[in-house]
Amino acid sequence: MIRLTSLLLFFSLLPLLLNLSFSSHVSISLSPETLCKSGDQVTIRWSGVESPSKRDWVGIYSPPTSAHSHFIGYFFLSDSPEWQSGSGSLTFALINLRSNYTFRIFRWTDAEVDPSRHDHDQNPLPGTKQLLAESNELGFGYVGPEQVHLALTGQEDEMRVMYLTHDGKESFVKYGLGPDQMDRVVATQVGRYEREDMCDSPANHSVGWRDPGYIHDGIMTNLKKGKRYYYKAGSDSGGWSVTYSFMSHDGDSDETVAFLFGDMGTATPYNTFVRTQPESISTMKWISRDIEALGDKPALISHIGDISYARGYSWLWDNFFAQIEPVASKVPYHVCIGNHEYDWPLQPWKPEWSYSVYGTDGGGECGVPYGLRFNMPGSSSEPTGTHAPATRNLYYSFDVGVVHFVYISTETNFLPESSQYNFIKNDLESVDRAKTPFVVVQGHRPMYTTSNELRDAPLRNRMLKHLEPLLVKNKVTLALWGHVHRYERFCPLSNFTCGSLGLGGEDWKAFPVHVVIGMGGQDWQPIWEPRPDHPDVPIFPQPLRSLYRGGEFGYTRLVASKEKLTLSYVGNHDGEVHDMVEILASGQVLNGGGSSSAGGGSKPMGEKESRLSWFVKGAAILVLGAFIGYVLGFVSRARRDTAAGKNWTPVKNEEI
């Protein structure tokens, strides 16, 4: 009996003994052990991993007391070129989450793969049974204000600034007309949300929740029109941020510049529970280029839903705001709500027809981080029906120069008699077209799309029935939508009928031009709508109403004067214009019939054409001439082949 008991004890301790044998010689170190600020890089080095496997991995933990399975991200050791030697290193940037980090190395075997635990892409999440080593803690030297971003308030002489601190103590914004003339000071209001405010998992579960810090909100007032202001945030006791600057808006200006997109998300250097969006880096890069080219002209950014794609993993909100800060601290950053900020099973407005539309896309956040981390103009809100605070920033409008911008919510009630419907109707009917000849309406889920997205059909039908008549009656210039992660521009539309094909001419009607601009960064996307009689064949006819479809990531650039509004689609792979439409104040569409490039529009904003560009154009004309000659020869040959009985039917690619 004693021998049997000893054997049982031995086998029960065997995993622990094996773990000790694996980890006894494994070491892990950090360089540096204190990062100066959020976004700085750390290098982790390890050695002594015996019989290294491709499944061995290192987890990233914050706070350091997190359970093994509650990492914020991970790398495989095989990401290091020298991993097979049992040693290696990885270098990557980290965001300050207001608590320290640690790093843990684990051995993960094939036998430990748990198919029930997987990430957003159905990849199994790594196992944590065999800990090999744990690092010292990594901290941050700077603990002042971070994640700074601006917003308009609806008052021409104001600018809102928001940011985070770790302690919520009294904090201020200093501002003025020069970096050495920040002689005006405004106090900030402070708010935050708690884990109990979240509505579902993972947002209210320990795997997704992290302390969000304290949200500060201040308004710089009495700003002079069209002037560059400098500002910084913080306090003498808690430390001050770096100095930022922005251009105040001029309500009398005859020009408006905006950068608009949807569904951008954020990029992380590590793997995590959900898919992140590497293309968001390029979107911000090219917009930053355009803002620099503007010089001392004001502009704004419009991000129409699916903002961070945190989906209940709160550190992704921190990552997002750190990523946009270089841009959002210079120009106001405006948003509207999308399904990935809001939708959860018990959301209060969920008609019977909408069960295929509204699901669990918000990861249990129920609009709380979105509603508190941003503060948009107006006072729209809807109760959540739970302990959570009411959802804010649902619908609002403001004027910038010659454009009236309207933001709506496709996730909450927009049907007749609702507060949102009444707002949209009254707002559109009261626009002063002498002051703002152009009206741009923006929402997340599209009213028109040729994507094969069937689940939203009930919603689109009701938008077409109830909202489209308001847009047509009030001669809305542009209707911009996200949700579909591609670019698609339609002809001026009313009830699926084109007012014109965007080629000028006398026969036209001033219907809204609908454009889907959800190509900001998220990469998942269903196919275009196939032929009804051959749904299994990858041929996707482009209806006449759809003038341009593109699959490239990017953003749109809006430039408007009193006479004309120009919307350009800028692609991320080259930063050049791939489509453009021009609309007069009368509503007439001058061009934009579906060509894949816009004349001269491929230059960054503010860049003048050089002599070299003319040489390039000349060479291009020669190449084009040779190509046309080739095509004519090919057509001639094709006709001869057809005459000989060699019939064929060409298929047009929808991207051309």
TrEMBL record:
Residues 1-23 form the signal peptide. Pfam families: Metallophos, Metallophos_C, Pur_ac_phosph_N. Residues 145-246 form the Purple acid phosphatase N-terminal domain. InterPro entries: Calcineurin-like_PHP (IPR004843), Metallo-depent_PP-like (IPR029052), MPP_PAP (IPR041792), PAPs_C (IPR025733), PAPs_N (IPR015914), Purple_acid_Pase-like_N (IPR008963). Residues 512-579 form the Purple acid phosphatase C-terminal domain. Residues 289-487 form the Calcineurin-like phosphoesterase domain. The chain crosses the membrane at residues 614-635. Its EC number is 3.1.3.2. Its main location: secreted. Gene3D superfamilies: 3.60.21.10, Purple acid phosphatase-like, N-terminal (2.60.40.380). Keywords: Glycoprotein, Hydrolase, Membrane, Secreted, Signal, Transmembrane, Transmembrane helix, Zinc. GO terms for molecular function: acid phosphatase activity. It catalyses: a phosphate monoester + H2O = an alcohol + phosphate. Belongs to the metallophosphoesterase superfamily. Purple acid phosphatase family. Homodimer. This is Purple acid phosphatase. It comes from Ilex paraguariensis.
